[in-house]
Amino acid sequence: MTRGLFISFEGIDGAGKSTHIDRVAQLFRAAGRTVVLTREPGGTPLSEKLRELVLHEPMDPLTEALLMFAARREHLVQVIEPALARGDVVLCDRFTDATFAYQGGGRGFDWQVLSQLEHMVQALPHGHLRQPELTLWFDLDPHIAAQRLASARVPDKFESQPADFFAAVRAGYAKRQSEMPSRFAQIDASQSMDAVGTEVVRVVTAWLQKVSA
Ligand code: TYD
Predict the structure, then answer these.
(1) Which residue ranges in the chain fall short of pLDDT 50?
(2) What pLDDT was estimated at residue 149?
């Protein structure tokens, strides 16, 4: 049996990551793999309910962080772990790096508390932590992201934040990358959609060769 793979997609709102997830899914399906496409917060009926609350209701920062991790716990137990155990490819639109970037960087919430929650929620046997093996970080200047978002749909609680919030989120992603550099691939999302797509395929293909060698 082929082993499961866990890849996450990250970036500030407006960076354009969602389009490229489908491209990566096609890549794996063409190679005969079963792909589970999912997202956070969300991915299970309960986690999608939590998503509605957390994206639209004002709340205390600790409540917000706890709800993100509560949704994640459910998602891990119900969807991600079973899929990895079956040998599927899990492509997740955001995961814990988003909590560090948005709640930690953007909101200024305590990074250590987030680490504690991460250890509680993502614990595996033998002291290991469940993490994506590869994280594609679509990195973009918040001013360019804001221009892209301006023409998009009605913004949620996070999307309506000012550019300096997203500058802090971006710094949160950079900090997270510096803590765990080996699983991050930073993609310059200011390029054209096609150029970003080409880079995504190149990064994923090179990574696959490395892990299957
Ligand atoms: P997003 O992934 O951009 O979905 P859509 O493309 O449908 O808008 O929206 C999720 C929002 O939730 C995004 O603004 C980031 C935020 N978020 C957090 O603040 N913390 C988290 O842990 C996660 C997973 C997301």
Answers:
(1) none
(2) 86
C-alpha–C-alpha distance, residues 87 and 55, integer Å: 32
Residues framing ligand 1 (Cβ under 6 A): 13, 18, 40-41, 55, 68, 93-94, 98-99, 102-103, 158-159
Q: Which letter does DSSP use for residue 203 in this model?
A: H
Query: How far, in Å, CA of 118 to CA of 122, rounded?
Result: 6
User: 108: exposed, middle or buried (C-beta count within 10 Å: 0-12, 13-18, 19+)?
Assistant: exposed
Please give the distance, rounded to the nearest whole angstrom, from the Cα atom of residue 94 to the centre of ligand 1: 7
| CA 158 to ligand 1: nearest atom | 14
* CATH code: domain of residue 63: 3.40.50.300
Note the Cα 193 to chain centre separation in Å.
Answer: 19
Q: 125 lies in which domain range? A: 5-212
Give the count of domains, the chain.
1
Shortest-distance Cα residue to atom 3 of ligand 1 = 13
